[in-house]
Design a protein that fits this description.
The protein has 18 helices and no strands. The chain is an all-alpha fold and 365 residues long. Helix 3 runs antiparallel to helix 5. 42% of the residues are buried.
């Protein structure tokens, strides 16, 4: 209902910041962060032009705040993604480790990625500028977010928690608090913040994605226990199913749904339990993601793993797995092309080649 009115206002009064600001809010709620940032960029540009209307100028600080929040969230996601990459590289380089390597500290992650440092600086600059023009509550929230970004989590989180207590609908605070808890591997706390954010705004895709990631990570951490992983994994599945209903065109939602299904497959395999339904759910999610974005590494890898798993089952049953291994290899090659140098993908590719080599040797004798 709101978007047509926003589009109409943009065509009637292209010099106003208002429609671009509200477009940014709409896109952010739908999880379209790049489109939201572009809209806030335009609103800021219009609000700072000579002769800008009073209404446009009033939206300068809120637009910078919203852009800063989006940049802060993107930084947190990028930080965690880089941390996972470093852990994957460490695990691949030392396959004989009996315990998983310790996650690198934030400073170490930032030192390995200058781009992340620049992303953090951009978010901080937006939030600091926004704080100068926001009412007291908004300025305090912006300053608290800066503290979190500067790795002063205790101070920043305490201030954001106070802001949320004063305004339960300050939905961006839940996202930042949940993201900070994720970075400290506090899965239960992270899930709690994202769940509260979802209660405050059921139309916000980011809260559902964050909730599913937190619950999935929690389940993964409990994977060595017999049944404790089932409850958090079930909650992760429920959250991501709701997310794909809310935003059926979101590749992020479908790739996360594939990751959640993949974890269930992995945990069932470790217990030698039937995983046919989980594998079917994994394939459906991965294919849905690829239908939206054919370059999704996660989805491509997921289908490759399904083919590899099915081929292993054929080996155990005494059935020729050649076709399945060939399909798995093609898919792993595709994933390696999409993510050059990924150590675990290279290990998976080598594993398929090893099985194909053993198979060829046995068939030749």
């Amino acid at each position: 209902m709101l978007r047509p009115k926003v589009d109409d206002l943009k065509s009637i009064a292209p010099y106003l910041a208002e429609p671009w600001y509200y477009e940014g809010r709409i896109e952010r709620t739908l999880g379209n962060d790049d489109a939201a940032i572009a809209a806030f960029d335009r609103a800021i540009d219009l609000a700072t032009r000579p002769g800008a209307s009073e209404g446009s100028r009033r939206l300068l600080a809120p637009s910078r705040y919203q852009r800063g929040v989006l940049r802060a969230q993107a930084f947190q996601r990028g930080l965690e993604a880089r941390r996972r990459e470093m852990l994957r590289s460490e695990a691949a380089a030392h396959p004989d480790l009996r315990l998983a390597p310790e996650p690198p500290e934030t400073a170490e992650v930032l030192a390995s990625s200058p781009e992340l440092g620049l992303a953090r600086e951009a978010a901080i600059a937006d939030l600091q500028e926004a704080a100068k023009g926001l009412p007291a509550a908004g300025a305090e929230a912006a300053s608290a977010m800066v503290a979190i970004l500067e790795d002063r989590s205790g101070q920043g989180c305490a201030a954001l928690e106070a802001a949320v207590a004063a305004d339960p609908y300050l939905e961006e605070a839940y996202t930042l608090l949940g993201g900070d808890a994720m970075s400290r591997r506090k899965w239960e706390s992270a899930a709690g913040w994202f769940a509260r954010g979802h209660e405050a705004d059921r139309g916000c895709l980011g809260h559902l994605l964050g909730l599913s990631r937190a619950e999935m990570s929690w389940a993964h951490g409990l994977g060595q226990e017999e049944d404790a992983w089932r409850a958090p994994l079930g909650r992760a599945e429920a959250a991501i199913e709701e997310a794909t209903r809310l935003a059926p065109g979101s590749v992020d939602a479908w790739t996360l749904r594939a990751s959640v299904a993949s974890l269930r497959v992995e945990l069932l395999r470790a217990r030698e339990l039937d995983r046919s339904a989980a594998s079917a759910a994994l394939r459906e999610a991965a294919e849905s993601a690829l239908a939206i974005d054919a370059t999704s590494t996660i989805a491509t890898t997921a289908i490759a793993c399904i083919e590899q798993d099915a081929a292993h089952e054929q080996i155990h049953r005494g059935v020729d797995p050649s076709d399945g291994l060939a399909r798995a290899r093609r898919l792993f090659e595709r994933a390696c092309d999409l993510a050059p140098g990924d150590p675990l993908l290279l290990c998976n590719l080598a594993s398929v080649d090893r099985h194909r080599g053993v198979l060829a040797f046995l068939m030749g004798h």
